[in-house]
Write a structure and sequence with these properties.
By secondary structure, the protein is α+β, with helices and mostly antiparallel strands. It is 28% helix and 27% strand. The longest helix is centred in the C-terminal third of the chain and has 13 residues, at 97-109.
Length: 150
């Protein structure tokens, strides 16, 4: 897989194609993919609010990465977005697919929000986001923030 054959598509319904990605994430100890499915199925979060989206990165018709954008539910400001549920399959890592996905989401976020926040629990993910311009923060419910006005 190479980044230039990657197609980004908005996800408007979760389908069985996401199950291998979810199983892989869960096998690595990441429960957020299961939470994504549960929240989608219950209608709690379908990334359908103003400026929100859920995107998949596809290579040869198979989803290899996913990431979402919501208004940040942890703070009242309507100008703050949240990068959520970003996961890149191990077979697609270090091929710029995650970079392409996150940059696309950040670009979309800049049309609605002034700030983009996220929370990560791994040092590898923290380093990835920092390479993309996010800075560490001590803000509640976030580990990293990106000023979209810059």
């Amino acid at each position: 897989m190479i980044a230039n054959s990657t197609q980004l598509r908005q996800i408007t319904s979760l389908h069985d194609g996401i199950l291998p990605l979810s199983a892989e994430a869960e096998g690595e100890g990441h429960r957020f993919m299961r939470r994504l499915q549960d929240e989608w199925n219950s209608g709690t979060n379908r990334f359908a609010g103003h400026g929100e989206c859920l995107l998949g990165a596809y290579v040869d018709g198979h989803i290899v990465a996913i990431g979402g954008l919501n208004k940040d539910p942890y703070i009242p400001a309507a100008t703050v977005g949240r990068l959520r549920h970003v996961y890149v399959s191990s077979s697609a890592r270090r091929q710029r697919i995650g970079t392409i996905l996150v940059k696309h989401i950040a670009d979309k976020a800049s049309r609605t929000f002034t700030t983009l926040r996220l929370r990560t629990t791994t040092t590898e993910a923290a380093a990835f986001y920092e390479r993309l311009g996010f800075r560490r923060t001590d803000e509640e419910a976030a580990t990293h923030v990106l000023d979209l006005r810059a």
